[in-house]
Design goal:
- The structure is a single chain.
- It is built from 9 helices and no strands.
- It is an all-alpha fold.
- It folds into 2 domains: 11-50, Homeodomain-like (Arc Repressor Mutant, subunit A), CATH 1.10.10.60; 71-207, Tetracycline Repressor, domain 2, CATH 1.10.357.10.
- Helix 6 (132-153) runs antiparallel to helix 9 (191-207).
- It is flat, with a radius of gyration of 21 Å.
């Protein structure tokens, strides 16, 4: 008996299975036929729950944003812990699903859970005392930083390997030696946490936060 026959199929269940396929086979490996087979149904049955492949990808984004935990803020003094926690949670979700990272910068926050998660981040910044435009701008910059870092992290090994092949004649320059050394040290020390510290410092300075 199929999932549909047992009444266990839903848009969320379909999206969860799609995430599993993306994790295993990459974005290019996701197809309606493969998804239907994984769920034990005909591919055409999926269209009762998702309009098309694009709608399916929106559902995938919804499922992933639902995993981001943003604590409620009870006042201006809690803004830093809330922002740090929320951005770390988003980073953890992206790190757990690297093949899905490419969806985040190109798809609009138009689905319910995606919008709800980003709205919670906006409210946390409003609670810190930021005005509507400043809160939205700050949220956009913070989320873009996390997505950008996750995207760059996918190529970190290739970047480090590229630095390792710097022509010998360039290594005679002290500034080049410093740069090569900094790449290895920064990767070892954790670029994300260092970047997060810079984001927090920038917000505190720009908006005179406690």
């Amino acid at each position: 008996m199929s999932l549909a026959d047992r009444g266990q199929l839903s848009r969320e269940r379909i999206a969860e299975e799609a995430v599993a396929i993306i994790d295993r086979d990459g974005l290019s490996g996701l197809s309606m036929r493969k998804l239907g087979a994984a769920l034990g149904i005909e591919a055409m049955s999926l269209y009762y729950y998702v309009t098309n492949k694009e709608d399916l990808l929106d559902a995938v984004l919804d499922v992933l944003y639902a995993r981001v935990d943003i604590p409620e803020s009870n006042g201006p003094d809690e803004w830093e812990s809330v922002v740090r926690s929320g951005l770390r949670s988003l980073h953890a979700v992206l790190s757990a699903h690297p093949s899905a990272v490419a969806l985040f910068p190109v798809r609009a926050a138009s689905t319910p859970q995606t919008f709800s998660t980003l709205h919670r981040g906006y409210l946390a910044l409003r609670a810190a005392g930021l005005g509507p435009v400043d809160a939205y701008t700050s949220l956009h910059v913070c989320v873009s930083f996390v997505i950008g870092h996750a995207s760059e992290a996918l190529g970190a090994t290739q970047h480090k390997r590229g630095v390792d092949t710097v022509p010998a004649e360039l290594l005679d320059e002290e500034s080049v030696q410093e740069f090569v050394s900094a790449v290895g040290t920064a990767v070892a020390d954790g670029l994300f946490e260092s970047g997060l510290d810079l984001m927090i410092a920038a917000l505190r300075s720009r908006f005179d936060l406690p």
